[in-house]
Structures are given as structure tokens and as C-alpha cells.
Amino acid sequence: MPLRRARESDLDTIIGLIRGLAEYEREPQAVQLEREELRLHLFGPAPAAEVILAESDAGEVAGFALFFQNFSTWTGKPGLYLEDLFVQPRFRRAGFGRALLVELARLCLERGYGRFEWSVLDWNEPALAFYRSLGAVAMDEWTVHRVSGEALRRLATGGAG
Fold it and tell me: 24, 81, 113, 131: which is the annotated catalytic residue?
């Protein structure tokens, strides 16, 4: 199944996939991206993330993976962080998700990275089972924290939470 790096001309397709993922994750209202900002962060002079698209044999975009480099002080190496993986419902169970993960693992090794990580919603049992089948291990002792919106603005100015 064909995989390819996204091009700037794929931007609207990527936005559609992001919206599809938000629907699946039961948070369609959470998508507040600005098209031009996303374009700049994916295809501008200093991209913050990369996208790989999976295509059907007929050339339809079946899914995507959006990822970026992180860093581990414990390994002393960069790592690959998968922010989003989404396969459109009509293409599920056809190997697209696995193909995207295999490609990211390959990139990770090719680039000399020490880790490949991602987060999964705890209610998403189909995804959890799929990831376990690939050898992924849940990092249950870690809890993700986030500061955003007004709390981020307050923190940035030294204000209390």
C-alpha cells in the first residue's frame, strides 16, 4: 500500500483527516486550527511536524500519521513522537494503520532515534489492543499534564493557576 510524505497541496486533506480524528475521539469542537498556521508549521521554512499519508491502490487518501522529533535525556537521543494516527473508517482493518506505524519505526531507526512514543485515549480499546499486538508497552506510571489557553497565558506571565 502506497505511503508518501505529505505535500503542501495536501493541506486540506490533512485538515479533513484531523477533523475525522476529532470526531472519532468524540471532540469535534476541540479542533481550532488555523489553516495558514498549520501550513506554516507543516510546510514552512522550519517545519514543526511531518505528515505521512497512506493511499489506497486507487489513489484515495486512507489515513495519515502526524509526528515530530522529541528528545530523551535518559537515552541522550532524539525520539519520534506520533501526535496523530488516523485511518478513515472505510479503510480500517486493511493494514493502513500498521503500514504507517512500520514506516515511522523505520524512520526512527534510520534517523538514529532511541524511542518511538505516542498517547492513546484510555477508552480506545481497539487501538490499545492493536498497539499491544505490535509490542507497544503502556507507560501507566506516567500521567500527561497540559497547560493551555488562559492557564498558559497566566503561567507565562508568572501568574498563579
Answer: 131
131 is catalytic: yes
**15 three-class SS:** helix
- The grid cell for 146 is 497540559
pLDDT tens digit string along 55-99? Answer: 999 999 999 999 999 999 999 999 999 999 999 999 999 999 999
Rounded percentage of the chain residues whose pLDDT exceeds 70: 99
- Asked whether residue 149 is domain-assigned, the answer is no
Would you tell me how many other CB atoms lie within 10 Å of the CB of residue 51?
23
Q: 129-151: buried (b, 16+ CB within 10 Å) or exposed (e) per residue? A: ebbeeeebeeeeeeeeeeeeeee
Write down the pTM of the prediction: 0.91
Is residue 156 one of the residues assigned to a domain?
Answer: no
The total domain count for the chain is 1
142, part of any domain: no
Range of the domain at 64: 3-118
Q: Distance (Å, rounded) from C-alpha 63 to C-alpha 5?
A: 12
Confirm whether 155 is domain-assigned: no
